[in-house]
Design brief:
Layout lengths: L3 H24 L1 H20 L5 E8 L3 H7 L9 H13 L1 H10 L2 H4 L10 H9 L3 E3 L5 H6 L7 E7 L2 H103 L27 H4 L1 H14 L9 H13 L2 H8 L8 H15 L11 E4 L12 H26 L8
Antiparallel strand pairs: 1-3, 1-4, 2-3
């Protein structure tokens, strides 16, 4: 019970404080209303003078099967629909490419119709194209439930004060990104062709070098074999000549002995008259006869034979096997296969690999693919200028300004009341 009195006193003080707080707000009602109304009026003026903003949209899907097939007709290109479309989207999303499209399309004049001075062109272009967005396909719950029968399109959007300008820029940007993607694919293929042609040239030179080395090795091998054959044939010729010489010297010795014997016996003339049929007589010296040579031929004939044998300059005409040996020697010395290899100027026609490389080179250099009508995407809808601006939430801006200024004025009033000297406090 003793605590009830202080509690009543605290309650009365709180009631007095709230009452005084309310009274202070009432006293400054004009300040609150004036500040709130002033800020709200400024917000109304702002939204009424706000420049309308338009939004442009262009949509597209992945390239057609015909375009993909045509692109893959390029000699060394292997692309899929997804890879081609990905290159296009990468090009389209590039801020650097957006600046290039802006400059090359002469949009600086279009987006600055008053020809106002621009301090920094790059900053102006970056600010103008900052709202460009590439959007992935969005599927509603209904689409997911029913199943999307066609490919969902991608889109690119841009916001700006001129509906015609942003639509024209978006259409130009999409067209240039498509063209740039195809050009880069062609250049990439040309680069790969150039690299392949260089590889073919190196492979061809290497094959020709190896073939030339093999041919030179074959020439040396044939020469070595021919040299060995020539030495063998020459040895056979020398042996045949030596044997013929030995036979001739032996025959001279035999005939000399026979002549001496005929002289000692007084047989000077031949005794061929003893044969009734002269035509049947074999007068070849050195063959077996029933009669001795000294008796048959006599000293004169034997000495004449010896003189002929001693005066012979060469035994070659009397060596039958020399004909065959000389023929073999001439054949080896005039080896046609060796001469053909030595006279060959180009080994290419004799290398199947070279022929295949030459065919590949001709195909790479002569193949032309018509790229007209080939695209890196399939345009679903071009950007068409909208007649009405997008919703800028003007009412929301005014409402937020009203609520914010009202709360700020109350807060300011409370601060002023707190700083005001207390009238009950004695001086």
């Amino acid at each position: 019970m003793p605590q009830s009195k202080p509690e009543v006193q605290n309650y009365q003080e709180d009631e007095i404080d709230l009452r005084s707080l309310f009274n202070s707000l009432v006293e400054r009602i004009f300040l609150i209303a004036g500040l709130t109304g002033f800020v709200t009026v400024l917000a109304i003026l702002y939204v009424n003078n706000l420049t309308p903003t338009y939004k442009a949209t262009s949509s597209f899907t992945s390239p057609s099967a015909i375009s993909v097939t045509t692109i893959n007709k390029l000699n060394l290109i292997t692309e899929t629909k997804a890879s081609i479309f990905s290159k296009f989207l990468t090009q389209l999303s590039s801020k650097d490419f957006q600046k290039i499209a802006f400059v090359e399309g002469d949009f600086l004049t279009l987006f600055n119709p008053d020809n106002s001075p621009i301090d920094d062109v790059d900053v102006f272009i970056s600010g103008t194209t900052s709202s460009v967005r590439v959007n992935t396909p969005s599927m509603t719950k209904k689409d997911q439930d029913l199943g999307f029968l066609t490919e969902p399109p991608y889109s690119v959007t841009m916001e700006g004060a001129s509906a015609e300008s942003i639509s024209e820029y978006l259409n130009t940007l999409v067209a240039m990104a498509n063209s740039k993607t195809i050009i880069e694919l062609i250049k990439h293929n040309e680069l790969k062709i150039d690299n392949r042609l260089e590889e073919i040239s190196l492979e061809r030179d290497l094959l020709l070098e190896l073939a030339e080395k093999d041919r030179f090795s074959e020439i040396e091998r044939i020469k070595e074999q021919d040299g060995q054959k020539i030495r063998q044939i020459n040895d056979q010729i020398d042996r045949a000549r030596y044997m013929a010489k030995v036979d001739r010297l032996n025959e001279i010795e035999v005939l000399t002995q026979a002549a001496l014997l005929a002289k000692s016996l007084g047989v000077e003339e031949n005794n061929l008259n003893i044969f009734k049929n002269v035509n049947a007589v074999n007068i070849a010296i050195g063959e077996n006869n029933n009669l001795p040579d000294w008796y048959l031929y006599g000293e004169k004939a034997l000495l004449a034979r010896i003189k002929l044998l001693e005066g012979r300059m060469s035994d070659d005409p009397f060596i039958p096997e020399l004909v065959t040996l000389n023929y073999q020697l001439n054949e080896v010395q005039n080896n046609n296969a060796l001469k053909t290899l030595e006279a060959r100027q180009d080994d290419g026609p004799f290398l199947p690999e070279i022929i295949n490389l030459d065919i590949e080179k001709i195909n790479l250099e002569s193949r032309i693919v018509d790229m007209n009508g080939v695209n890196a995407m399939k345009l679903s809808q071009i950007s068409i200028p909208l007649k009405s601006p997008i919703n800028q939430n003007k009412r929301l801006i005014v409402l937020l300004a009203f609520i914010g200024s009202f709360m700020m004025s109350i807060f300011l009033t409370l601060i002023m009341s707190a700083l005001k000297p207390d009238e009950k406090t004695p001086a």
